[in-house]
Predict the 3D structure of the following.
Amino acid sequence: MQSLLKSRKEKCDFITREKMERPKISATLPSIRKGDLENYLKNIRSQTYPRDKVEIVVAWGAKERIDDLQEKYDCRVIYDDTPDLEARRRIAAEHATGEWIFMASDDNFFPNPHLFEEMMDAVLTEHANAAECVWQYYDRKDYPINRYCALVGVYDPSVYYLRRQDHMQVCDRKWNLIGTVLKETDKYFKVKIKKDEVPTMGDQGILIRRKDVLIGNSGEALLHMDMCAELIENGRDEFIFMKDYFGHDCVRTKKQLLGKLKRNVDRFQEDGSSRKMNYEMSGKKMVMLGLTLGTFVIPLKDAIVGFCKIHDWAWFIHPVLCFQVACLYTWSTVKAKLKKSKS
């Protein structure tokens, strides 16, 4: 009897979703790499969401024109040579016309062709503020550093030990991130997030209302973590985490990953006081984080535990990367303090 009632309910829910009017989605992104961009456009156009309801807006920062891609994939291209990636991200969002925006990067891909439909069903049904995937796609044939990022669920190990990551390890199925689970289905977690524990969310494929993307971001740059922090501060604090995967061809070497982390931390040191998303730590907590990252013991233990779950030697990038990140962040902090004292 219960299975019959469940079947009827699922059928009713399906009919309701079919009758639900599909809002327009604007997939926005900054890009300068034609090859990566074409792969991304191809992936988005393979989504089963009604094609006439998906607008693609590209803030193109390279000198060459991409009229061929614009015509082939029916996308809007905003030519702007602003070197700041986050500034071009904002430009793309400002030119979008959809009620909802799907924010991602040109090195992202989404294996599930029904992702847009399932995300939109979830946010509308649950009256949530945004949706993103909870796992990074893991491929044993991928570069070791990309496999490591998917296995751990984060690119920056300091974020992992601060418990601010927005993606679970690929081997985890029970919710273990910050935030309170309000509801769980076979498709998603509905989570309430407090303003003092905002995860590093909003970059790798988030579906969010356009008006909320631009909220509080009146400057030149659109910083995804600040966007989410601003949203939560205004009481819009319920989010959907899809039980699904986003792909990210992040980097091919550890050196490239460290370069990205250096860029991020240097920017944070420059304008940290004006950022909505901040990692306020006591001196004791900062020292403990440094010891955790820099002494190999805990990262090595975590790598061994992970290896026991999924036998991949990429886990053992973790302790080495932790040490390098500790050195990188310490040096960046020292430079920032010296610069501040001189000025």
Q: What stands out?
A: Residues 308 and 315 are 10 Å apart (CA to CA). The longest helix spans residues 317-342. The chain has 13 helices and ten strands.
